[in-house]
């Protein structure tokens, strides 16, 4: 019995590794084509440096890039935390006062269509530009809307029969919220948080361009103006790595919190 | 004391100006197993929801255990089972059964003991740590029944609980339900659109007519207890089935029950 279970566990682990093989092959093939085509088509390095040159610059400039990356990561993380928490809190409030929610929803959707990144220089005027506050504000505003809209949709997409069942147990609004609405909303919230990690990084870097000394954004901007394209690309690589790390952190939290979700696992029937 | 007492109960829906129930009088005594049967739109599910205080009556009175329906609901006087098992995916089978107990403030020890007892009752020992979606439809329904019974409500309200199950599972669960009913000595109000299921399970079948929903007649089912698979072959069983079918035909239901099969709009 346990031997069978063990064997099937190894088999599924092997299958999981095999699932990754095509992605890894495509990744390295892309890098190889990139590296080769620069020689073949004689592409200038200000257009696109060789991957290997980017990686070696990444290594030689690692202390500079890491310091810049850490600065920008803090801005992104701060903005992500503030924007997402406010988004979730607003959704909870609007789900509780449904009328108000219905009145505000069109406004929220319209506001969501504003290219918020355009406000980045304004935030520099609102907050102390030497502090991380204006960059965090940009990242936070970018995170806010998707998290709010998705959480609200999750909180209100509870099946009526589930609410009736709870009512038949004489459960009040708070119990229904805690035991039915929140678990129902969790998959929606995590989907939004994953999007928000990417948005937070975009918000932080773009507002860095408006002059954050020692940040990733300014490293990219200054390297380009000095024709040091390898360093610019290495900074972009750093930004990508940090973005992926944030995304993976949320995805891991999601996997832990949503172990019960039937849509995200192989179905085993009893 | 009468468990359910309905006096000239009327229910209208403002939307579409529909009279779902008109002047319903019905008394259900402790230990009875009453089935509500009728064609599509006869209001039998609405009647169950009014008894359970999930929707208020427009006129007339509803008393459950001598109390108003809202009071009975707040006192946890009844357990409810829907056609869909309404289990929560994020809870294991045990936690689903324990849900009403958590709301009633049972401590951990009592919950655990009670859940184990209930799972034994519905023959799902060993499935406590499974999630609902890992179980078959029949097993899910048994979990829903265990949950409804876990806090020992005096009254069980069941709205076509076996409607979505296949014939074989349904017949097995019918026998299990009767076994549970006998052991718990509870009172059951059961909505169904299957004539043979109603006759097999009940001590009394209430036939309802549509538009507006009224009671067209009741048939006392005097088949001997306990009922077994042999009951379905008893000539008297067929007589009672015919009697119910005649009543249904009188209210305009197709004699083959095809209208009945489209119940739940």
Could you give a short account of the major beta sheet of chain A? none
CATH architecture of the largest domain in chain A: Orthogonal Bundle
Poorly predicted parts of chain A = none
* CATH topology tier name of the largest domain in chain A: MetI-like fold
Give the termini distance of chain A in whole angstroms: 15 Å
Tell me what portion of residues of chain B adopts beta-strand conformation: 15-25%
Q: What is the H/E string of chain A?
A: HHHHHHHHHH
The CATH homologous superfamily name of the largest domain in chain B equals P-loop containing nucleotide triphosphate hydrolases
The total tally of domains of chain B equals 2
Q: Helical segment tally of chain A?
A: 10
Describe it.
Chain A has 270 residues and is mainly α. Chain A has 2 domains: 1-43; 50-261, MetI-like (MetI-like fold, Orthogonal Bundle), CATH 1.10.3720.10. Chain A has 10 helices and no strands. Chain A is flat. The relative contact order of chain A is 0.13. The model of chain A has no long low-confidence stretch (mean pLDDT 86). Chain B is globular, with a radius of gyration of 18 Å. In chain B, helix 3 crosses helix 4 (108-121) and helix 4 (108-121) crosses helix 5 (137-149). The A-B interface holds A 159, 161-162, 164-165, 167-171, 175, 179-180, 183, 186, 260-262, 267-270 and B 52, 54, 73-76, 78-80, 82, 84, 86, 88-91, 99-100, 103-104, 127, 130-131, 133-136, 139.
Summarize the structure.
Chain A is mostly helical and 270 residues long.
Spell out the key features of this protein.
heterodimer; A: 270 residues; mainly alpha; MetI-like fold; 2 domains; 79% helix; flat; B: 265 residues; alpha/beta; Rossmann fold; six-stranded mixed sheet; four-stranded antiparallel sheet; 9 helices; 37% helix; 23% strand; disordered C terminus
